[in-house]
Design brief:
By secondary structure, the protein is α+β, with helices and mostly antiparallel strands. It is built from five helices and four strands, in the order βαβααααββ.
Length: about 140
């Protein structure tokens, strides 16, 4: 199973965003001749269809808390591509130290279902994170 971030269409019009990521990952799996035997899960905020794993997690927080954080970010102009997810996570952690993310949210159902029981006879390999640039995989830190 491939678990990848959707990222953002405005940052990468070829691979960014849920729809582009889905299209390109299907093509990659077919090119590698593993489409029929592999699975895919794209992490993102499923309300906006973009973002990262952190976007999915943060999308599960209660609406009032989310609106408070978004208002602060809009007023502070704190957002930037380089550290957006880190800022969101840190604000949530600092503002609501006794609150856990709501992993019982239905936004996690597909991921929980796909990872509940691995396919028998397969091995899991953890690969380094990669970015796709100009159709080539580029290892990132």
């Amino acid at each position: 199973m491939f678990v990848v971030d959707a990222d953002y269409t405005e940052n990468d019009t070829i691979y960014g965003g849920f729809d582009n990521t889905l299209k390109e990952m299907i093509a990659i799996r077919k090119k590698l001749n593993i489409y029929e035997i592999s699975d895919l899960y794209i992490t993102c905020n499923f309300d906006t269809k973009d973002g990262y794993l952190e976007s999915l997690i943060l999308s599960s927080i209660p609406l009032g808390e989310k609106e408070c954080i978004e208002t602060f970010l809009d007023c502070s102009e704190f957002k930037s591509k380089e550290n957006d997810k880190a800022i969101l996570n840190q604000i949530y952690t600092n503002a609501y130290p006794n609150e856990n993310y709501d992993f019982s949210s239905d936004k996690f159902n597909t991921l929980k279902h796909k990872t509940k029981k691995p396919i028998q006879g397969t091995r899991m390999t953890i690969l380094p994170a990669i970015d796709l640039k100009d159709g080539k995989a580029v290892t990132t830190k």
